[in-house]
Design brief:
- This protein has 15 helices and 11 strands.
- The protein has helices at residues 3-13, 19-26, 31-49, 88-100, 116-133, 153-163, 180-186, 196-208, 226-239, 265-283, 294-297, 301-307, 320-323, 339-352, 366-372, and strands at 52-55, 57-62, 105-110, 143-147, 169-172, 212-215, 218-219, 243-248, 287-290, 312-313, 356-357.
- Strand 4, helix 6 (153-163) and strand 5 form a beta-alpha-beta unit.
- Helix 1 (3-13) packs parallel to helix 3 (31-49) and helix 5 (116-133) packs parallel to helix 6 (153-163).
- It binds 5'-deoxyadenosine (5AD).
């Protein structure tokens, strides 16, 4: 065995992996190395969190946003976009549909707003979702994930109470990159500014309010290095998060970074998969979602992520008219496909990866459960 391969094997099996080793693994590119990496990540997943893959039905409830994140297609200053808000009736109907189709959870996501009307609207939706989805299969009603941006702690608390299901309650708030200079650049346009500190405060507040806390980053942001990605993984560790969702950075015609381009698709896909694998190897017992953005790079992107250690899928049962209004990046898959067909295809992908689709399961993060005991 040549030296390089030996080092790679050592890094993969190391109990106390160093930054140098993480960076080495993240850069895997030849077939042998990436196969060894995905095999190891798959093995760690099986050992740590088992064979099940969990579903969260993703409901993009509104594309109205008060922030101006430069990478994002629904940022406030994108005047070319017509804005929508789903009605409470539509949100409840879709949630009930998800519960009836074996999705144990829904994820409500939207542009960022902090006004009272929005905060109260979410609380009302949560109460009604709970009331309408308690069943034999889901004795505590649907599991809830919220992805609604930074809020005050009282708001997190109010929503947790409204959910009626505190044991199956999650919040996603990516810190996007741990490189603060890069974070500033990405959020440097005029308007309401997003700060790194506020995002970290949110993660702490959410933990205090009992949520399973999820975060994540974008991978392949122009200017981002492998050392930055390694620092992201270290930050996941130090924050002690329960869930991670990461996807490739993709250019967005509605953002204002189009001039800086995007990494080559093939390399970007491999880097994203490597990041998932290394995160699994290092973080072990967290839930890791396969981001929708992976499917932009390859129609089997999310499926491949399962082989690299992801254990959560987020099918989007929304009507196509809303999906088209929720283009965070270009070429988001939003073709008119029957929602049942989408779920069936995902379940087939899970089985093809020799995993088990976990129907009507809450799928709480094991990392969180261990702490809650
Ligand atoms: N490319 C990839 N991911 C993006 N997001 C927003 N814009 C883009 C983009 N251009 C991601 C951010 C955000 C999540 C909701 O969507 O990471 O946290």
């Amino acid at each position: 065995m040549i030296r390089e391969e030996e080092n790679f094997e050592v890094a993969l099996l190391s109990d106390d992996i160093s930054d140098e080793e993480i960076i080495f693994l993240l850069g895997a590119s030849d077939t042998k190395a990436v196969n060894a990496l995905s095999n190891r990540a798959y093995e760690v997943t099986t050992k740590q969190v088992g064979h099940d893959v969990y579903f969260r039905g993703l409901i993009e409830i509104s594309n109205i946003c008060t922030f101006n994140c430069r990478y994002c297609g629904i940022r406030k200053s994108n005047l070319g976009l017509s804005r929508y808000e789903m009605s409470k009736k539509e949100i409840i109907e879709l949630s009930v549909w998800a519960a009836n189709h074996g999705l144990g959870n829904v994820c409500l996501q939207s542009g960022e707003r902090q006004d009272k009307k929005f905060v109260d609207f979410i609380a009302e939706c949560l109460k009604e979702i709970h009331q309408k989805t308690v069943s034999e299969k889901l004795p505590h009603g649907l599991g809830i994930t919220l992805s609604l941006g930074d809020q005050e702690k009282e708001v997190y608390e109010m929503w947790a109470e409204a959910s009626g299901n505190r044991n199956n309650l999650r919040y996603l708030a990516r810190f996007e990159t741990s490189n603060e200079k890069l974070f500033k650049f990405l959020h440097s346009s005029r308007g309401k500014g997003k700060t790194f500190e506020k995002r970290l405060q949110s993660l702490r507040d959410l933990r205090d309010c009992g949520y399973q806390v999820g975060t994540g980053v974008m991978i392949g942001i122009p200017g981002q290095t492998l050392a930055d990605l390694c620092a992201d993984i270290r930050m996941f560790q130090s924050l002690g998060v329960d869930m991670i969702g990461m996807g490739p950075y993709l250019k967005s015609a509605g953002g204002d970074l189009t001039s800086i381009g995007q990494m080559d698709s093939k390399k970007l896909l491999q880097l994203s998969l490597n990041m998932i694998a290394v995160t699994r190897i290092v973080l072990k017992d967290v839930n890791i979602a396969a981001a929708t953005a992976l499917d932009v790079l390859d129609k089997d992107g999310r499926k491949q992520a399962i082989s690299y250690g992801a254990n959560v899928l987020m099918p989007n049962p929304n009507h196509v008219k809303y999906k088209q209004g929720y283009q965070l990046y270009d070429n988001k898959p939003s073709v008119e496909k029957d929602a049942e067909e989408v779920i069936e295809k995902m379940a087939g992908d899970v089985l093809a990866c020799k995993r088990t689709p976990a129907w009507s399961a809450y799928g709480s993060s094991l990392h969180w459960k261990k702490k809650a005991q």
